[in-house]
Amino acid sequence: MRERLPTPEEIREEDDPKALAKFFHPTSGWSWYATAFDPEREIFLGLVDGQFLEYGTFSLAELEKASGALGLGVERDRFFDPLPISKLREKLERGEHV
Which spans in 1-98 are helix H? Predict the structure, then answer.
């Protein structure tokens, strides 16, 4: 997965980068959609769907440490189809499952 994601510098000029990977917590309802990954800092850039939608950064370490009900951790959605952030945001704002 790390090799598939561009770096933040590579997508800096893109108006509507694609979310290429989805991570989710099965018991919390939170999801993280990655558009880029900085391998040196181990930081993702992307959309976070939690209490509200926010485009920004989140760390690999935070995803790996997250634990919720039943001791379950964050998982990667292997069936996620990449979407431009604008389309993803529209779907999430309408309450659609992505």
Answer: 8-11, 60-65, 85-93
Distance CA(4)–CA(11), nearest Å, equals 13
| 15-52 residues labelled b (16+ CB within 10 A) or e (exposed) | eebbbbbbbbbeeeebbbbbbbbbeeeebbbbbbbeee
63 Cβ contact list (under 8 Å, min separation 6)? 23, 32, 74
Q: What is the pLDDT of residues 26-75, one digit of tens each?
A: 988 899 999 999 999 999 999 999 999 999 999 999 999 988 778 889 99
Looking at residue 69, its pLDDT comes to 73
**Can you read off the two tokens belonging to residue 67?**
């634990």
Task: Give residue 58's identity as a one-letter amino acid code.
Answer: F
Distance separating alpha carbons of residues 25 and 60, to the nearest angstrom = 14
Sheet holding 43-49, edge to edge: 53-59, 43-49, 31-38, 21-24, 75-76
